[in-house]
Amino acid sequence: MTAKSIGFFLFLLGCLRAAIMEEIYGMVGGDIDLSCISPGKKHFDLNKISVYWQTKNEPLKTINAYIPGDDTSQYIDSKYRNRTSLKLEKMERGDFSLHLSNITIEDELELECIVVNTSNTDPLFRSPVNLRVAANYSIPVVEAPKKTNDTEVTFTCTSHNGFPKPKIYWVNKTDNSLLNQSLQNDTFTINEKGLYSVSSVLKITWTPNIRIECCIENVNLQQNLTVQSSFLLSQDGSTDHHIITTTPNQSIPSGKTSIITLFIIFGIVFVIVLVIVISVRKLRKNKHHYGDYTGPQGNRQMAETTDYI
After folding, report:
1. The model scores a pTM over 0.90
2. Which of 51, 133, 214, 264 has the fewest CB atoms within 10 Å, i.e. the most exposed one?
3. What's the rounded Cα separation, in Å, for the pair 281 and 248?
C-alpha cells in the first residue's frame, strides 16, 4: 500500500471516529464528565478557538460554551446554568470535556462538542455524546399471595423510584420457565422527578406448592432486581410464605458505543479497506502491464519493435 493510500485510509478512520456516538451513563442526582478529546493536536491557543457544547437535535440548546473575551453565560440554557463547567487548563491540552452535575431525567439527550477556529469559523473537530440517565429501583416487594378461590392465586410485586421505565418478568422457579405476560397486569406511575414506580399483579393457577420469582429489569443499568416467593403447603394443611431476595449488581455500565454502531463502523472500514486494496492492485497492474501474453514469439516481436524506437 502506498504512503498516499495509507494517509487517505487514516483520514477516513479519523472521520469515522468523529462520527461514533459514544454512550455515557449517569445516575440521577450524580455528576459526570462528558468526554471530548482532540483526536490529533494536543496543544491549543485558547485565543484562537471557540468551544460549543450543545444538543445535537432540534431544538438546539447551548449547554456550555467558551468564546475568547466573551461572557458566554448569557447563551447557556437556563436548565444548565451553574451545573456545567469547562477547564481552561485542560482545553489547552486538547481536553474539552464537560462536567455536568446534579443529573436529572431531562439530561438524557444526544449532545455534541464542537471546537471552532475563530479566524474562519471552520470546525476543527466534532465529538458527539449520547448521555443515558438511570436511577436504581427499590428492592421489589412481593406481597403474600392471596388465594382468591380454589383454582387461582394472586401475587403482587412492587418497586419504586427508578429510571428508565422497567421491564417486569415473572418466573416459575419449579422449572425456571418464563410465565406468559398475559397472566400479569402492570401499572406504572411517574412522580414529579420523572421517576417510575411499578406494581405488577400476577394471577396463576393454584397448585399445592408454588415458587415464583419477580424480576425488575433496568435496561440502562443492565441490572435485574429479583425476589423469590414460595407458597408451600405444610403437612398439617396450612400454608407457609417465604421470601428470598437476590442482591443486585450495583455497577454502572461504562461509557460505550452500541453494538449496532460498531457493526456499522466495522462494515464501513471493511468496504474502505477493500476499495483501497482493489485500487492498489489496479495501479500495480497498470504500472507493469505490457500487453496480453501471446507466447514466446509474441514477446520476442515486442522486444524487437522496442529496439527500433
Report:
1. no
2. 264
3. 56
